[in-house]
Write a structure and sequence with these properties.
Length: about 350
């Protein structure tokens, strides 16, 4: 079973940490931890960098911002650590946070350390040795949706997060904010996305009556599956963009990643998750299940899905901007410009149908 569990590799060139300073810091801050430590890096992901720290038989996870220029409000380690601390006791899928530091003398940036959840993380294709029957795929996709709804349903005020976000005006701020980010990150080879931005601005709904904790990056490769029962979700990772806001916006963002077998060849070519395999619920079925279980009523979901697609394109463009301007050497980022064009076409298709 170990072959299908995400494994760290050697640290990428240019993304090394100061091991001696980190070791001294951890030995001082975390009880029952003693060096020497071994540090490796998880190769996947396009945003914050994730490292595994091994100290004897104990394994921890360190998260830090990417190297190079980054968006001013992005990669906020303090926010990510704060929400982990708040929801750890009420949401059983949250990894235990240990320590946060903004002392840049340790590794050159702010960072935090949490427990490692040992399990399977799905990527573009199922790993060798793992398969899902249609029934198992359906069970996993139902659990995926139900856990997201469980997060949205937490009474955020009762755990001290009443000031963690501003639910009033959330939708408008998202449309304005992501439009600004996209324009600022646009490169000469990127689409303008003007039609989608105008459409979203004209059709934005009023504030949600039941705001909640939203993850803002809830997708299959941010979930940890039980190695003994891969249809069971045991963890939710990557909380850097979590806030208090409209749960339907969060669902729309999630479904932008959810490529299904009926999608265009271009969308299927850019998928990063195995949600196209037989048995996984469709986006329409996931929305129907969410609305039924939450009791929410809406006219149509198109607005939220177009927002999710545009937001995903803006995230990809921001990362590609760093590669285009040689702020990162990671060659994975070179192909993101093609994803941005494909996402613009997908958004236009929904808009024109509407």
């Amino acid at each position: 079973m170990t072959a299908i569990i995400d494994a760290p590799t050697e640290i990428r060139k240019g993304e090394e940490l100061n091991i001696s300073r980190l070791e001294a810091f951890l030995n001082d801050q975390i009880n029952e931890l003693s060096g020497p430590i071994e540090v490796k890096q998880f190769p996947s992901g396009f945003s914050n960098l994730t490292y595994q720290i091994a100290a004897g038989h104990r394994k921890l996870i360190l998260r830090r911002p990417p190297f190079g220029t980054k968006a001013k409000s992005a990669h906020d380690m303090a926010r990510e650590f704060t929400i982990l601390q708040a929801i750890y006791s009420v949401f059983p899928y949250c990894p235990k946070p240990y320590v946060y530091s903004d002392d840049t003398s340790v590794i050159g940036s702010s960072f935090y350390v949490m427990e490692k959840l040992e399990g399977i993380i799905l990527r573009k294709n199922l790993p060798d040795g793992l398969s899902f029957t249609p029934k198992q795929a359906k069970t996993l996709s139902q659990s995926y949706l139900d856990i997201q709804l469980q997060l949205h349903s937490i009474d955020y005020r009762s755990i001290g997060l009443e000031n963690f976000g501003k639910p009033q005006g959330y939708v408008k701020r998202q449309i304005d904010g992501w439009s600004k980010r996209y324009r600022n990150a646009k490169t000469p080879d990127a689409p303008d996305f003007q039609e989608a931005m105008a459409w979203l601005n004209e059709r934005q709904p009023s504030d949600c009556e039941k705001p909640g904790i939203i993850h803002n990056d809830y997708k299959l490769d941010n979930l940890v599956l039980d190695p003994e029962n891969p249809t069971k979700i045991i963890g939710v990772l990557d909380w850097e963009m979590a806030t208090i806001g409209d749960p339907l916006m969060d669902l729309g963002s999630s479904l932008a990643y959810w490529i299904q077998k009926s999608d265009s060849p271009e969308m299927l070519a850019m998928r990063t998750l195995p949600t196209h395999i037989e048995g996984f619920l469709t986006r329409e079925e996931l929305v129907e299940r969410y609305l039924e279980k939450s009791g929410l009523t809406i006219g149509q979901f198109d607005f939220y899905l177009v927002f999710g697609i545009f937001r995903l394109a803006a995230i990809a463009q921001q990362i590609y901007y760093r590669y285009f301007h040689r702020q990162t050497r990671d060659k994975r980022f070179a192909s993101l410009i093609f994803a941005v064009w494909i996402l613009e076409a997908a958004a236009k298709k929904i808009i024109q149908k509407d």
